[in-house]
Amino acid sequence: MRPFLPEEPFGPDVQYIAGAMSSSSLSHLLRERIARHARTGRTALLARDDSASYAELGARIDAWASRVQDIPRGDLVGVPASRSADAVARFFGVMQAGGCPCFVEPGLTAEALLPRAHAVGLRRIVLDDESESMARDLEHGGLRVHLARDLLRRLRRSGSAGIIFEPLDRADLAMMQLTSGSTGLPKGALLTHGGHHREDEADRGGSPAARDAAAPYQRRQQPAHRTVSSRGDRRAGRAVPG
Q: Looking at the 3D structure of the chain, how many domains does it have?
């Protein structure tokens, strides 16, 4: 793996600490694409109360990667999917730091969330201000809870302004997607960095802007991944078309 440093920081006060982010990781690919669009001043996300340019999104992802850098590499981490730019940044920040993020439905009670988490082996969750009220119930149910405000306070107290990029390669887990499958019971599809990167390599041919614009709408067979069933076992499989 070659050492990775961004061409320019997304934030003016961020000091980048040399790490090794493989060029085959989804985090590296995402960062390159965000930087490309940031240089043109494009808007990345539009939300009712929380919008972001590509430069702002990149800075938020870096900030979240700093906050959660102590989460062990490859750990499954739940991220409530509130409709905000910060939820997107939190998801990709966990990924950039080496964790395996998984969006969970916003608005779920602790009683509804815990069975889903236990079914797929999800043992950690990062809660924002909107969902931190259920932190105690989730902790009593066996989850390790990370509160957004506590993570920020700890980062400021440490005095560290740098970002350490976890060395990621194709075999590392990139994300987990929850699905009910054909049984109606919770299942999790585990996708690797290499699987996502192979898709990007297969799509080369059009202009970068055209590929970026088309990517969210393409429906194609995903590379091999593992599934986690309600019994907790992990087995090889093929993803159904997305």
A: 1
pLDDT digits (tens, 9 = 90+) for 64-118: 988 888 889 999 999 998 888 989 999 999 999 999 999 998 889 999 999 999 9
Q: Are strands 187-192 and 234-238 parallel, antiparallel or unpaired?
A: unpaired
The answer as to whether 185 is a domain residue is no
What CATH number has the domain bearing residue 163? 3.40.50.980
219: buried, middle or exposed (CB in 10 Å: 19+, 13-18, 0-12)? exposed
Can you list the positions of beta strands (E) in 99-143?
A: 100-104, 124-127
Contacts of 142 (CB under 8 A, 6+ apart): 114, 118, 123
Domain assignment present for 135 = yes
List the domain range (segments joined by +) for residue 60. 15-168
3 alpha-carbon distance from chain centroid: 21
Residue 182 inside a domain? The answer is: no
